[in-house]
Amino acid sequence: MGFLDTLLGRTKPVQPKLDDLFALPSAAITLEAGAGFKPTGSGSVCFRPVEGRSFADVQKDVTELLNVSSGQEGGLPIEVTKDNYGFTWLVSSRMSDQLDALVTDLHAVNTALVDNGFGPQLLCTLVAFRDDEERRLAHVYLFKRGTFYPFAPTTGEHRDNALELQVKGVVGDDLKFEPDLGRWFPVWGAPGM
Amino acid sequence: MAARTRYAPDRGLTARMTATMFLLGLVFVAFIAAIIGIGAASHASDAVIVLFAVFLGGGAAIGSLFYSDKIALRTAGAKEVTPQQAPELHGIVDRLCALADMPKPRVAIANTDMPNAFATGRNADKAVLCVTTGLLRRLNPDELEGVISHEMSHVAHKDVQVMTIASFLAIMAAVLIRIAFYSELFGGRGRGRGNQNVFVVMAAIMLVSIVVYAISFLLIRLLSRYRELAADRSGALLTGQPSALKSALVKVSGEIARIPSKDLRAAEPLNAFFFAPALSLQGASLSRIFSTHPPLERRLEELDKVQRQLGGAS
Known about the structure:
The structure holds 2 protein chains of 2 kinds. By secondary structure, chain A is of the alpha+beta class. Chain A has helices at residues 3-7, 24-35, 53-72, 99-115, 161-171; strands at residues 38-47, 79-82, 88-93, 122-130, 136-142, 147-151. Chain A has one domain. Chain A is built from 5 helices and 6 strands. Chain A starts with a helix and ends in a 22-residue tail after the last helix. By secondary structure, chain B is mainly α. Chain B has one domain.
């Protein structure tokens, strides 16, 4: 936020960075080779809905758009859920080897929201992975920072921090990781994990 | 373009805030000019007194800025909480910080039934956010999110720094009043030949300082009210839920009105930091220009504007 904006108390809402998401498919290859995690085919977009008719209409249009495109390719319909914090998650499920198509889907959702002026409401995007030992891992993409961070929940509300840092080491060159560990916030109960 | 119209700043509010800060600056310049004028018309060594006041005032202002977080926390009796101790609260803060691209402040809870919240600290990295148990008890998650969003807007707008600089003038004037008053009382200097002259100079300094103090006090309160409206607005735009913030405002103000005056008076020193001022509703008429916060109706009206803006067609 510029000096003048701060001085005058005008917050400029932060616009999301959308394109870094496309680094995921190639990073997934490195991840599988280096740590044995494979994509589950599930990915989601999380945003804070805005009250009022305008946003509700946009959300409906976006969901329909996605359903049409995934329906054409024999995919599952988009799931819309709300979490305890009032954030909405749009979950897309694809076959596990269609990571490119999944990322394109997610990017389409993000772009649709931005084009309708609701870019600042976007929180994060999540792509789920799993290894042979059934350990869960998600790559969370922070829109406002344009960075990723790994999230490895275990049982209850615990995280496997060691695994997260290990993953960062393996994929650190392919993906832009969030340097500030304080921003790696937990997304407990994220749908699609 | 759609993005611009929905999140557009409130030009009227910006203009009023700019005008207030400009007036404060003008008063500051006039004050310095008056002191220099008085000093030039009399003894040169009076300038030392003025300089002393400037340094003392500046030191007090900078000190209060640097320790604002510790002082505010201790006064409120707040204790910092970890994510394990307060997971839902931390969850709300995490998400708001990610939406606003802000570093996460420390989170504290004050054990008092009066519902309120404040954020303090000299910059975004050293910020602390505090909510009371009374607030947590009364508000639902959306309303709580609205309040926290308002407080974090204060941090983003650097309100602690801005208000400290603005009040520097008032502090300096206050110090000068004291010095002039006491030097007249004890009148040690310039006995005999120059006595008359010193008396007049000190009286002039005191008069100017009193006028400056009064004007800057009112301007600072006015600025504080505008900053509160700006924080309301930014907070509502961040969450996209202006009604939740309205609902929180009504609940908190209503609850405060029910609290016995004795407890409210104890909370008054921290009013500038609070989400809603700890004032009883009796005798509200004159106190409007002295208030650190705009009246409830005004805040609700401004949030209505945000609601229309967000709901408007793209």
